[in-house]
Amino acid sequence: MTTKTLLDMVNVTAGYGQTPVLFDVNMSVNQGEIVCLLGRNGVGKTTLLRSIIGLNPLTKGSISFDETDISKVPTFKRARKGIAYIPQGREIIPYLSVLDNLKMGFSASGKKGNRIPSEIFDFFPMLKEHLNRQGGLLSGGQQQQLAIARGVMCNPKIMLLDEPTEGIQPSIVQEIEETLKRINQEKGITIIVVEQKIEFARKLAQKFFIMEKGAIVQKGTTEQLTDDLLHRYLAV
């Protein structure tokens, strides 16, 4: 079985205005992989995800997705091509119900629809019990599950998750890990996750990339993610 490259970043330089944050980033992700992006705070991990979805324009380099150059494609069209972005802090709409938050997934994907697929409640049974509740009244862990579910609603080819376990209790972290694995295996969705919890990353991902000063400095399989590498690039 041949492996298909789904996302390919070549010499990507990007940032905010005239201030570059990423420098000549080269990163390739295959279809069906779960990849973890590691590094200390402020090294450019969030900017890399934002560049993939189009929120940070490139000043150099290119991004190909599903064999198409998307370097100059606007964000909403990237979403419709199959890129779902779940930002840090979740960004659900607090005054909307859980149901209406989920339905926003339809508009992001550009597909018309009103009925939530049953698989969403199979992945996230908790949401079914809270459909009419305001999103802002959910716990942090429940809000994170809602944000991921909204991403799955877009029926994406790839999901970009920025620190999905931040501030969440350990039992929910384990649930999120198991659910992401199921989404990956059952729907074939490729996942890139920015993460600080190393054990979560090791259990979830098959591959890792480590960033330092806006560049990819190490990569490999999670079996190759040694304590020495962690100490060198992640110890504070």
UniProtKB/TrEMBL annotation:
SUPFAM superfamilies: P-loop containing nucleoside triphosphate hydrolases. Residues 7-236 form the ABC transporter domain. Pfam families: ABC_tran (PF00005). GO terms for molecular function: ATP binding. This is Urea ABC transporter ATP-binding subunit UrtE. The keyword Membrane does not apply. It comes from the Bacteria. It comes from Leptothoe kymatousa TAU-MAC 1615. SMART domains: AAA. Belongs to the ABC transporter superfamily. Keywords: Amino-acid transport, ATP-binding, Nucleotide-binding, Transport.
